Amino acid sequence: xxxxVRAYTEWDLLEEVIVGIIDDAMVPEWHVSLxxxxxxxxxxxxxxxxxxxxxxxxVAKARAELEGxxxxxxxxxxxxxxxxxxxxxxxxATPHFTQPAGLYAAMPRDVLLVVGEEIIESPMAxxxxxxxxxxxxxxxxxxxxxxxxxxxxPKPELSDALYDxxxxxxxxxxxxxSVITEYEPTFxxxxxxxxxxxxxxxxSNVTNAFGxxxxxxxxxxxxxLHVVDVADSHPMHIDASLLPLAPGKLxxxxxxxxxxxxxxxxxxxxxxxxxxIPLSHPLYMTSRWINMxxxxxxxxxxxxxxxxxPMIRALKSWGFTPLPCPFRWFNSFGGSFHCATADVRRRxxxxxxxx
Length: 355
Ligand code: ARG
What we know:
This protein is α/β, with parallel strands linked by helices.
């Protein structure tokens, strides 16, 4: 059978992709796991709005931008799929925790990890995201019937034992101290990226060493899983720190990656320009480094935020073809083009690109 799921890199020709939806987006309830990852300036917002919907006007603007992204991708020849709406406004209860609501299905990159012909549902550490993979089940079932390998990592308990109650903010320049323990394996797919046989990942406030080890053993000897040391005191998702754009071309946030991992020896290293997003623009869930969260459609074409002149100029100067797309209101919800998508199929074979 010819699997409909197949991706070995972040840059091979993109044939099919899942684009998230912003409908029904809910503000997660305040918790120490949010204190460790969400921008300090937004903590008051979570304490006040947790369990309520995100502002409807901003959701509507982000939705329009998502539709724009879908049109752009289709015009470039990519098959676009969307998750199903879920009742995120409904409370969640398990034997171990309760939540006033879910989150959203806006960021498929966080949830679904495609490695080769396998699609893995991540064991996510946020309680509000416990049922998020269900938004993708219609697609996952279809891909399975088409010949893909479909896996869900062990469902975590997310009891209090997973969270470090004594966690204290290390500050922006401090040492990373994870808010999650090693009680059980957890990871978000967006803490990893693919470079053929080499998979890179980071420990974060949602991905623990246990989760990384689970993935390493699960992927087996065909892949080498490297843990990157990222200088981020509030890490959650690696794709605003480093991201390969093409073979031998690595986009790097120099504030967070002062030392390039040795596996990228011989690669061109491109420094992410300073973010251009206005300081006044609401960013509930991310830093301004979301400017580097671009999406490669192949080794040349890169989807980039339409108002981000410095990034557009930089991409051109590095020999890429930028495809500008307005996405600032979507950015407010915690991600850009890389987060908002999950590669289902990219043409290409399993190869080695790294030293
Ligand atoms: N934590 C990153 C930052 O604040 C944003 C990463 C977003 N990525 C994602 N896949 N949702 O810079």
